[in-house]
Write a structure and sequence with these properties.
CATH class: Alpha Beta
Order of helices and strands: EEEHEHEEEEHHEH
Shape: globular
Number of helices: 5
Structural class: alpha+beta
Distance between the termini: 19 Å
Number of domains: 1
Strand content: 15-25%
CATH topology: Ribosomal Protein S5, domain 2
Length: 220
């Protein structure tokens, strides 16, 4: 069975990123982006998606967190696209529900007072739907807050830039929705956990279609 691994190295004038991915891992991770909150989100993504992720990024944090977060999403999306290969035998769709954990709830992931939902389709067609996070607009922060408090800047909108970058480069249809929630840390963490479980399920191999591509088109 083909090992589903990828190594991505991406350099621009704004960031230098290295991503090593093993989809069939155990949830181990080594993350360093210079943004503590973002490192926390990527670490829990690897844990709940049950994939191994090593990601390092040297970005222009003296400007703000935007390029580091967005470009990390781009690089991680590229890693998934490469590691999945022709996508033969994958379940393709993931809805955030892990049948091994019936306490999670169908297609939803709770995080204290928040409830987040994620559905993903590795369809080959990039599209992001982002609903329910409008009050957490990044634009509500002042310039000094954006540059001095990276975690707050990330929580209030940069999450969308990460997911947009991932959807574009992984060429997946990604729907993320906040049903309700108040505390920004909990909101973003709930979204990342729901995203992780959806990715986990969509990437799982289905033994019934081991050598077939899950599409009537014959290609994803």
């Amino acid at each position: 069975m083909r090992a589903r691994r990828a190594l991505i190295q991406r350099e621009t004038k704004e960031t230098e990123i290295r991503v090593k991915l093993n989809i069939d891992g155990t949830g181990e991770s080594k993350i360093h982006t210079g943004i503590g909150f973002f490192d926390h989100m990527l670490t829990l993504f690897a844990k709940h998606a049950v994939c191994d992720v090593q990601l390092t990024c040297k970005g222009d944090l003296h400007i703000d967190a935007h390029h580091t977060v967005e470009d990390s999403g781009i690089a991680l999306g590229q890693a998934f696209l490469r590691a999945l290969g022709d996508k033969k035998g994958i379940r393709r769709y993931g809805n955030g529900f892990d049948p091994r954990n019936p306490f999670t709830g169908e297609a939803y992931v709770p995080m204290d007072e928040c409830l987040a939902r994620c559905v993903i389709d590795f369809s080959g067609r990039p599209y992001l739907v982002w609903r329910g996070m409008e009050p957490l607009s990044y634009k509500t922060l002042t310039k000094s807050e954006k540059t001095q408090d990276m975690s707050s800047a990330f929580r209030f909108g940069l999450a969308r830039e990460f997911f947009q970058g991932f959807a574009n480069e992984a060429r997946c249809n990604l729907h993320l929705e906040l049903l309700y929630g108040e505390e920004p840390h909990h909101v973003v963490e709930g979204l990342f956990k729901a995203f992780a479980k959806a990715v986990d399920i969509a990437c799982q191999r289905d033994t019934r279609i081991a050598n077939r591509i899950p599409s009537t088109k014959g290609k994803l």
